[in-house]
Amino acid sequence: xxxxxxxxxxxxxxxxxxxxxxxxxxxxxxxxxxxxxxxxxxxxxxxxxxxxxxxxxxxxxxxxxxxxxxxxxxxxxxxxxxxxxxxxxxxxxxxxxxxxxxxxxxxxxxxxxxxxxxxxxxxxxxxxxxxxxxxxxxxxxxxxxxxxxxxxxxxxxxxxxxxxxxxxxxxxxxxxxxxxxxxxxxxxxxxxxxxxxxxxxxxxxxxxxxxxxxxxxxxxxxxxxxxxxxxxxxxxxxxxxxxxxxxxxxxxxxxxxxxx
Length: 260
Hints:
alpha/beta; five-stranded parallel β-sheet; 12 helices; 260 residues
């Protein structure tokens, strides 16, 4: 049976659409099922992105504040999800924050201080590509903080987030979860791509070797900080496109723009 004989009328219409023809000619090897999967993903994503525009407009008109955290292992797809969420919304009303290593002055400040200055003003959405939860996992695993600094953070973070929420701020916490094999595969793809090779850091290079340590601290983080007031949304991210769609849907379900 040929691929064409297995196609429905809807499939044929999708393949003959502008998006379908683009994907058909984009790939050297013809895989109709993969093309159809890509088209359906794009159609669903675009519909959700239209809703994101409405959601942001509600945030702006009602002077709301939104903070969305993206956590997960290296190469889990956090940046790609952020790009899809922010692709069409008003760039003047959102920020993406990806902080560098703290300066010496910042190391001597209250830990949350460097994040507070980036929190949203009314009518704004802030996306943290890694957040204060660096201290819950990345820093202790790689020896970037002391045991005391880690313990202080873990004892303060729930109260900090409660104060944030009590100040009329919506807080969404994503954790993008990938398998060890998938992370290794993505690292190899990054190393081979001269346009992406710059993304690899010393922390990334050690990620596979320290996999079990990351798992231990991740479990402790969930145990302590997955609260009723501020729960984690875990996204299974071995497959990038379903993970992105799930993240967008969760944002839209959490921000009550449709009830206005």
